[in-house]
Design goal:
The chain is mostly helical. The protein has a single domain, classed as Ferritin (Up-down Bundle). It contains 5 helices and no strands. It has helices at 14-44, 50-77, 86-92, 105-133, 136-157. Helix 1 packs antiparallel against helix 4, helix 2 (50-77) runs antiparallel to helix 5 (136-157) and helix 4 packs antiparallel against helix 5 (136-157). The protein is elongated, with a radius of gyration of 17 Å.
C-alpha cells in the first residue's frame, strides 16, 4: 500500500485511515493466499471423499474471493490502494506454502484448516486494532469475516481424521 492516501470526505483522521488501510492490505494478502490454497486443494484433492471435499474447498475459495472484494473496497473507500500483486503477496502473506505432494483428502484438510486458522487469527488481531483506532466500519467488516472464517474452519476441521 502506498503511504499516501487519496483525498476523500471520509471524516476518519488520516492516521486512522492510513493504519486501517495497512491492516486491510495485510488481511487482504492472507485472504488472497487462502483463496489460492483452497483452489489448489479443490483441483488436486484425491481419495474416497473426493466429491465432498472438492465442493467444500470450492466453498472456501468462493468465500475468500468475496472477502477479498470487501477488504479491497474498504481500503479504497478509506483512500488506500488495494494491492495483491504477486510481489506484494510474497512480502505480506504469511501462510505456509501449499504442499503439492500432499494431495489426499486428509492432508488437504489439514493444510487448509491451518491456513484458515491463520487467517482467522490475523482477522481477530485486526478487529482489535480497528476498535482501538475508532473505526467501527472496518471493525465490523473484520468481525463479519471472522465469524465466517470460524464457520468455514469448523466445516473443514469436521473432515479431519483425528477428530480434532
Amino acid at each position: 500500500m502506498n503511504a499516501a492516501l487519496s483525498p476523500t470526505r471520509n471524516d476518519l483522521p488520516d492516521a486512522t485511515r492510513l493504519e486501517m488501510t495497512r491492516r486491510l492490505d495485510e488481511v487482504l494478502a492472507g485472504v488472497t493466499q487462502l483463496g489460492l490454497h483452497a483452489r489448489m486443494a479443490h483441483w488436486n484433492v484425491r481419495g474416497p471423499h473426493f466429491q465432498q471435499l472438492h465442493e467444500l474447498f470450492d466453498q472456501v475459495y468462493q468465500q475468500a474471493g468475496e472477502w477479498a472484494d470487501l477488504l479491497a473496497e474498504r481500503a479504497v473507500q478509506l483512500g488506500g490502494t488495494a494491492d495483491v500483486r504477486l510481489e506484494t503477496l510474497a512480502a505480506r502473506g504469511d501462510l505456509p506454502a501449499w504442499r503439492i505432494d500432499h494431495r489426499d483428502g486428509a492432508a488437504s484438510v489439514e493444510q487448509l484448516a491451518a491456513a484458515l486458522a491463520a487467517v482467522a487469527a490475523r482477522v481477530r488481531a485486526a478487529i482489535a486494532a480497528a476498535e482501538q483506532a475508532g473505526d467501527a466500519g472496518t471493525a465490523d467488516l473484520f468481525t463479519e469475516i471472522s465469524r465466517a472464517a470460524d464457520k468455514l474452519l469448523w466445516f473443514v476441521e469436521a473432515h479431519a481424521h483425528d477428530g480434532r
